[in-house]
Write a structure and sequence with these properties.
The structure holds 3 protein chains of 3 kinds. Chain A is mainly alpha-helical. Chain A contains 13 helices and 2 strands; from the N terminus they run H-H-E-E-H-H-H-H-H-H-H-H-H-H-H. Chain A folds into 2 domains: about 55 residues, no CATH class; about 230 residues, Orthogonal Bundle (MetI-like fold), CATH 1.10.3720. Chain A is about 75% helix and about 0% strand. Chain A has a two-stranded antiparallel ribbon. In chain A, a hairpin with a 5-residue loop joins strand 1 and strand 2. Chain B has a two-stranded antiparallel sheet. Chain B has 11 helices and 2 strands. In chain B, about 80% of the residues lie in helices and about 0% in strands. Chain B is globular, with a radius of gyration of 23 Å. The two termini of chain B are about 15 Å apart. By secondary structure, chain C is α+β, with helices and mostly antiparallel strands. Chain C folds into 2 domains: about 170 residues, Periplasmic binding protein-like II (D-Maltodextrin-Binding Protein, domain 2, 3-Layer(aba) Sandwich); about 160 residues, Periplasmic binding protein-like II (D-Maltodextrin-Binding Protein, domain 2, 3-Layer(aba) Sandwich), CATH 3.40.190. Helices cover about 35% and strands about 10% of the residues of chain C. Chain C contains 13 helices and 8 strands. In chain C, strands 1, 2, 3, 4, 5, 6, 7 and 8 form an 8-stranded mixed beta sheet that branches. In chain C, helix 2 runs antiparallel to helix 11 and helix 7 crosses helix 13. The longest helix of chain C is centred in the N-terminal third of the chain and has 18 residues. The N and C termini of chain C lie far apart (about 60 Å). Classes of the chains: A mainly alpha, B mainly alpha, C alpha+beta. Chains A and B meet through helix 1, helix 2, helix 4, helix 5 and helix 6 of A and helix 1, helix 3, helix 4, helix 5 and helix 6 of B.
Chain lengths: ~290, ~270, ~375
């Protein structure tokens, strides 16, 4: 086996690769892909008045002509964009610091940056209501020194943004940090030796090497935010809703699984766009 | 590597994160020891351990902690065993349908869970997996696949190929190359993925409930029922504080693991 | 090999690896019972119903499982639907409180037992107003009332009619909040009270069968107008909390002065100190805020279906229904004639016999979605 592996590189590996990916792919096909396809089929194959079923895009047309649904989609995109815009610079700077620092302080910073992972969303939402909510801790402190209360983000679109950024810091930092692990010290020192300053080291040495990790980080954040439920539900306004609570409500309260799945498919298409970016960059890296 | 001057950046980060991350948690932690805390008092009117007694006195809390830890460990280990080889294959090998298969893992995360879970429950019913430990393992395993494949793929890609090739040139077997060159370099990233899977599994509720009820009860399932049934925050706060202390200590030590790969290479490791 | 120590670190928690996989299936004679209700309901079943029922029915035991919330129950119901299709064991027999219309199509699929035709000896005692469908057993009720901060509002000035309430809200902007109507009955019943208000305060105008698209439009539109008109005077210029508990929290933090609240939840919150003792409770006297009944549902494909039916019959007995009044602080699911005369006398003042109950079914969906589309968004958030 090892011998053929080295000799017959091009041909011998075709089955090996498939063999290695077979167990997780089989699991996904069995438990995820198949149910999804049957669900999508149901949104396109609607019951007709005669009791049969016929091909129709009515549920999709409804979504894209219904201003309420479109507003919900818009607020989801807005939240995702704002969260990503906050997360990337915050987490990149934390990760850069951690990559080049060591010692107790760095361990403490890293511990803190990863810690939100251990806080379930439901506890986080309670904590944020207690801290930033009306008459919360911040108000208490301001009030005790005679300052006016803050304009609370609770029940406004900023509530979920704060919660989601907080919640997504660990995963973003972890992914970026692991990407930075691939940037060798030698290459940075070499660049410094030829007189590059910090900024150009970052732009020309570090950034190109971690593009992949940044894409992974963004993909995961976007996925997480798109499907977020608890934080937008508890912290956000009643309307417009983010897609997570909206789908849940359509499915559970309005008893309308077909519409809920239509919303899901549309959400999924937006997520896939990010996935395509990522797969492309993976493919590009391999060729290089 | 010498750094005699004061680490001002570090102090700035530490202060900012303490304020933003620790402060809200501190408020929750204070709530755990509070019986009554009402506006406009800055400190609680009445401290007490009432809710600690209420939580720790319950046998189901302790069994569910054991269940959750065991579940998360088993799921993470199985996931690593099947996903890491697959991630290696996705990163390094050519095979038909690679991109589309790679994509397939996205599906489970981008698609909302409620519809999927019901379909999976239907499959499990026929297999007699409902209400069993291994049924819950299987449902949570599916939830970890995306992390455990996508993140390590990025890691395997960034491993220096020249080092591997030179090792092979001096006669090392592929397995030996993988074990001594590839894995150590990808190590920190894989550790991150393992951590994400472990914690993600630990706090997963919907699947654990739908597949596990009524026999298997994980801690978050119990916690949700505490929190939802009471207008008090204390139950959740107590359970959280119970779990935070060990997690934070573990994270301080994790610095060695997560940071070690890059650190060691700085010294030519 | 220090670098690979991470493998060990993930095993920090591997302590209890002694796993004994067991094939689980529902036990004969053990009713798998689920609730999504509050802890006080769970306590009521554990301490009152379970011992009495098990004593009266040797060989049958109850396995009381807390599902957390209604979504937890629906998940189990969906699992049972899948079990129904394949003839598998759903490992569930009895839902303490559930709407048999969920998940969609459940009744048509035959997921639940038709209680009306199941021959329960106590079925005829049920208060006719409480019956929603033939597939559920109403056994306890509770009401929504107004909870307010007596330090900010003198009980003498508390609103007595809906018109008073509207006037008070407008005169005190930012001091009132209700939750989204689908996320908890306190806000939901406040919205329903507004619907009664614009339809002549006549609960009889709404029945589960008189829903049509036209009737809902003409009857609900004016209510949306009323609620929209109220929105700018609500907390934060038109915010709505995401549940009963969040409203109670805002009241307990003195962020608002008045909220609609479930009577039992408010009383429990006061007794546990979540709400201060200075919290006042008031019911409108022109027409009360509607209440609601909790209705048990039995799964047709449960292993212990017959035992579960016995249980459903048992909770309608006079003993248990009286305990609902005395121990749970709710009101009975049976007509008042079937509660002991002393209790009827004693509670006559505390719990009015005529809490309006708004019908569910299509009305529920129309109200929830109508509110989201008409009332929730029409708020100018630009400040």
């Amino acid at each position: 086996m090892p011998a053929s592996d080295i000799v017959g590189r091009a041909r011998g590996r075709v089955p090996t690769g498939l063999l290695l990916v077979a167990p997780p792919v089989a699991l996904v096909c069995w438990m995820i892909i198949w149910p999804i396809f049957s669900a999508i089929a149901r949104t396109l194959w609607l019951p007709d008045p005669e009791g049969g079923r016929q091909l129709s895009v009515a549920t999709y047309t409804f979504f894209f002509t219904d201003s309420y649904s479109l507003n919900n989609l818009a607020i989801t995109l807005w939240t995702t964009g704002v969260c990503a815009a906050f997360l990337l610079p915050i987490c990149l700077s934390i990760a850069l610091y951690l990559r080049f620092a060591d010692g107790k302080l760095a361990a403490y910073v890293q511990g803190l940056a990863i810690f939100p992972m251990f806080v379930p969303s439901i506890i986080l939402s309670y904590a944020l209501i207690r801290v930033l909510g009306p008459n919360g801790t911040v108000d208490l402190l301001l009030n005790s020194v005679g300052l006016p209360k803050i304009n609370t983000p609770y029940l406004t679109p900023w509530g979920p943004v704060i919660g989601l950024v907080w919640d997504n810091i660990p995963i973003t930092v972890l992914i970026l940090l692991s990407g930075l692990g691939a940037v060798s010290d030698q290459s940075i020192e070499a660049a410094r030796d030829v007189g590059a300053n910090r900024r150009s080291v970052f732009w020309h040495i570090i950034l190109p090497r971690i593009t992949n990790s940044i894409l992974v980080a963004i993909s995961f954040t976007v996925l997480g935010i798109f499907s977020a439920f608890t934080l937008p539900y508890v912290l956000g306004p009643a309307a417009p809703e983010m897609m997570g609570p909206f789908m849940q409500r359509t499915f559970r309260d309005l008893n309308d699984p077909t519409t809920a799945i239509t919303q899901a498919v549309i959400t999924f298409c937006f997520c896939i766009a990010f996935g395509i970016f990522y797969v492309r960059s993976v493919a590009k890296n391999r060729k290089a | 590597m010498d750094r005699p001057r004061t680490d001002w950046t570090g102090i700035a980060f530490a202060t900012a994160l303490t304020l933003l991350i620790v402060f809200p948690l501190l408020v929750v932690a204070t709530w755990a020891f509070t019986n009554v805390w009402r506006y406009p008092s800055v400190i609680p009117q009445e401290f007490g351990l009432r809710y600690w007694h209420a939580v720790l006195g319950r046998a189901d809390v302790w069994t569910s902690i054991t269940t959750s830890l065991t579940l998360a460990t088993v799921v993470t280990l199985i996931s690593a065993a099947i996903c890491l080889p697959a991630a290696y294959a996705f990163a390094r090998l050519e095979f038909p349908g690679r991109n589309i298969l790679f994509f397939s893992f996205l599906a489970g995360h981008a698609f909302p869970k409620f519809g999927l879970l019901v379909a999976i429950a239907g499959i499990f019913l026929n297999l007699g997996l409902i209400g069993t430990f291994w049924g819950v393992v299987l449902i949570q395993l599916v939830g970890t696949l995306l992390f455990m494949i996508w993140i390590p793929v990025a890691a395997f890609q960034s491993v220096d190929r020249r080092m591997e090739e030179s090792a092979r040139d001096v006669g090392a077997s592929p397995l030996r190359v993988f074990w001594s060159i590839t894995l150590p370099q990808a190590g920190p990233t894989i550790a991150a993925a393992l951590l994400l899977s472990f914690v993600g599994t630990f706090y997963e509720t919907e699947g654990a409930w739908l597949i596990g009820a009524p026999q298997v009860r994980t801690l978050p399932v119990l916690m949700i029922s505490f929190i939802n049934n009471q207008p008090v925050i204390q139950f959740g706060a107590v359970l959280s504080v119970l779990l935070w202390v060990p997690s934070f200590i573990a994270l301080l030590f994790a610095r060695r693991v997560i940071g070690s790969g890059s650190f060691a290479r700085g010294f030519g490791g | 090999m220090k670098r690979r120590a991470f493998m060990l670190s993930t095993g920090i928690a591997a302590a209890g690896l002694a796993l004994l996989p067991q094939i689980a299936s529902a036990e004969e004679g053990r009713i798998d019972w689920y609730t999504g209700s509050d802890q006080n309901v769970m306590d009521f079943w554990t301490n009152i119903i379970q011992p009495q029922f098990e004593a009266a029915n040797p060989g049958i035991t109850l396995n009381l499982v807390d599902a957390g919330d209604n979504a937890g129950i629906i998940a189990i119901a969906e699992r049972a639907t899948a079990a129904l299709a394949s003839g598998a064991d759903p490992q569930s027999d009895y839902f303490e409180n559930h709407d048999p219309r969920l998940p969609a199509g459940a009744i048509e699929n035959g997921l639940y037992v038709n209680i009306k035709e199941a021959g329960l000896s106590n079925y005829d005692k049920i208060n006719p107003l409480a019956i929603d469908t033939d597939y559920s057993v109403p056994y306890r009720g509770s009401q929504v009332l107004l909870a307010y901060d007596t330090t900010k509002l003198d009980p003498a000035d508390a609103p007595k009619t809906f018109a008073d309430l509207v006037a008070w809200i407008k005169a005190n902007p930012g001091e009132f909040i209700y939750n989204r109507p689908d996320k908890g009955g306190s806000g939901g019943n406040f919205v329903r009270r507004a619907i009664y208000e614009v339809n002549g305060n006549d609960p009889a105008a709404f029945t589960v069968d008189n829903f049509t698209d036209e009737s809902s439009e003409t009857m609900l539109e004016p209510a949306w107008a009323l609620l929209q008109d109220l929105a700018p005077s609500l907390f934060d210029g038109g915010s709505y909390t995401s549940g009963n508990t969040q409203s109670i929290q805002l009241l307990s933090q003195s962020a608002v002065t008045m909220i609609p609240a479930w009577s039992d939840q408010a009383l429990q919150a006061i007794s546990t100190g979540v709400l201060p003792e200075t919290t006042g409770l008031v019911q409108l006297s022109d027409l009360g805020l509607p209440g609601g009944f909790s209705r048990s549902v039995i799964l047709a494909n449960g292993t212990n279906r017959d035992a579960a039916l016995k249980l459903a019959d048992f909770i309608l007995t006079e003993d248990i229904q009286s305990a609902v009044l005395t121990e749970l602080g709710g009101f009975p699911g049976v007509s008042w004639d079937y509660v002991s005369p002393e209790l009827r006398e004693k509670f006559a003042d505390v719990i009015p016999a005529s809490i309006p109950v708004f019908p569910g079914g299509d009305w529920e969906v129309a109200i929830n979605d109508g509110w989201y589309r008409n009332v929730a968004p029409n708020v100018d958030r630009s400040q």
